[in-house]
Amino acid sequence: MSDARFEAGLDWARVWAKGRGGSLAAPAPARASVGGYAIGTWLSELRASAQVPAGEQGALAPERRRALEEIDPWWCPTWPITWQRAYATARLWWLESDGLVDWTVLPVDTVHEGEQLGRWVQAQRVGWPGLEEDQRDLLTAIGIEADPELVAAKAAAEAKPKVSRTDRFAQGLAALAQFVERERHPRVPRPHKEPVEAVEAGSGGEEQVVVSQFALGTWLNNQKARRSKLTPGQLAQLAEHGVEWA
Question: What are the alphabetically sorted keywords of the record (predicted)?
Fold first, then answer.
């Protein structure tokens, strides 16, 4: 990028940031312009240059980086620019509301300035441990904090052992066998859920029987959709229970 184009763009960048709380997290290049100047495209090119290692051809000159950081220190963050755009929208709303925004009660379907802000705020509060420290600092500055209960629930869900595809097939086959034995046919309605029992360890270490609802209709429909990927053995097992397409 020539010096003349950079300087011209820098002037427009200041204008853009002034009306957006100091942020240069412009929308997608095709949509961002100010005074007829394609500021989105200009910023996109500079962010690409900022990713080139120093000393290599096309790398962003240090003085240009400093000039941009004087306008917005987070113009080219280490995290996705889409995150920064959503944050900039949230921050601008917070500024316009004089900081009187209760993010904890923001409806999840809230849309502001084209951003799915409600979903985004919830995602930050739930995914707090996975954010960079600078991201957490930025969020805290505008009153967005972690939701301890949701964070704990997510951690507990992620800690549960994942069921392999083979084990899931075995579960489905057992539920199908139970259904066929009771109903005397394998025609499982799509919405049907089969109650199945499993032995699990209780909080005190004792064994207990837990009854869960296995989505048998959905499972069987999924097996049919991916039957080309089932093994001959799996198809034979389904056929043994009267499944016609196996």
Answer: Plasmid
Checking if the pLDDT of 17 tops 60, the result is: yes
Residue 159 tokens, joined: 């800690």
Residue 209 to residue 197: CA distance in whole angstroms? 6
Q: Which residue has the tokens 């944050």?
A: 87
Rounded CA-CA distance 114/218 in Å is: 35
* CA distances for 54 relative to 47, 51, 77, angstroms: 13, 9, 17
Q: What is the pTM of this model?
A: 0.60
The answer to whether 120 and 127 have CB atoms below 8 angstroms apart is no
- The alpha carbon of 128 is separated from its chain's Cα centroid by a whole number of angstroms, namely 13
Locate all alpha helices (DSSP H) within 51-164, ordered by sequence.
62-71, 81-96, 117-126, 133-141, 148-159
Burial class (CB in 10 A: 0-12, 13-18, 19+), 56: exposed
